[in-house]
Amino acid sequence: MKRKVAGAVLIVGSIYYIIAEAISATFFKSSLSNTYIFHTISELGIPNGNSPLFWLMNSAFILIGIALIFGYFYKFKDCIVKNKIICSIFALITAFGVIIVGLIHGGNPLTSGYHTLGAVMAILGGNILLVLISKSMEDFGRYQKITLILGIFGLIVFWVMFFNMESIYMPVFERLSVYTLIVWSSLTGIHLLDK
Questions:
Q1: DSSP bridge partners of 104
Q2: Nearest to 189 by CA among 29, 1, 14
Q3: What is the pLDDT of residues 20-39, one digit of tens each?
Q4: How much is the pLDDT for 10?
Q5: 117 Cβ contact list (under 8 Å, min separation 6)
Q6: Rounded to the nearest 5°, which phi and psi values hold at 166?
Q7: Which end of the chain has fewer CB within 10 Å, C or N?
Q8: Res. 171: pLDDT tops 90
Q9: What does the buried/exposed string (b/e) look like for 123-140 if buried means 16 or more CB atoms within 10 Å of the residue's CB?
Q10: Does the pLDDT value for residue 195 go beyond 70?
Q11: Alpha-carbon distances of 99 from 14, 28, 79, 110, rounded to whole Å
Q12: Burial of 193 (0-12, 13-18, 19+ CB in 10 A)
């Protein structure tokens, strides 16, 4: 029963995130395609005239962070047989990072450093978490292989983004490195429900 509850929470959290971002992007003061290509996810959460549904995007950040904490510590941690402490630490780093992103928006010079720290915790920490998890479970089956691929892809795209912060396509790299975590959250939810 705990597996199914944890799985459902992770799936709901990831679906809510995707829907909330899509709705926030739809109402952003730019075309939908331009918003996804030329505007970062963080911009959707800044409370200004460009993003009237900033609160919706920020709620998605907070909810996916809470879903990760709950899903991981309520049941998924039992699937980890090696590196338990380091995996738990990175799960907390990732979750608190994304919650910080939701609570402290970018665009404010006084708080943008905290927002950036939260983003790095979430994206870099999260993709490292995926690599760790893939190597810390009892077997190395399809779920673990997909988790490893997502983690490695996310890390590569993160570093491409990091060294191309001035690129007009930086938001695309950002989204790709974030979506690995959202896909993994859904995948893990299905993995828990399937057992």
A1: none
A2: 14
A3: 999 999 999 999 999 999 99
A4: 97
A5: 97, 100
A6: -90, -5
A7: N
A8: yes
A9: bbbbbbbbbbbbebbeee
A10: no
A11: 14, 22, 24, 18
A12: middle
What tens digit of pLDDT does each residue of 72-128 get?
999 999 999 999 999 999 999 999 999 999 999 888 888 889 999 999 999 999 999
Q: What is the 3-state secondary structure (H, E, C) of the chain?
A: CHHHHHHHHHHHHHHHHHHHHHHHHHCCCCCHHHHHHHCCHHHHCCCCCCCCCHHHHHHHHHHHHHHHHHHHHHCHHHHECCCHHHHHHHHHHHHHHHHHHHHCCCCCCCCHHHHHHHHHHHHHHHHHHHHHHHCCECCCCHHHHHHHHHHHHHHHHHHHHHCCCCCCCHHHHHHHHHHHHHHHHHHHHHHHHCC
Q: Give me the count of residues in the chain.
A: 195
Q: Is 167 left (phi over 0), alpha (psi -120 to 50) or beta?
A: beta
Decide: pTM greater than 0.90. Answer: yes
Q: What is the pLDDT of residue 161?
A: 94
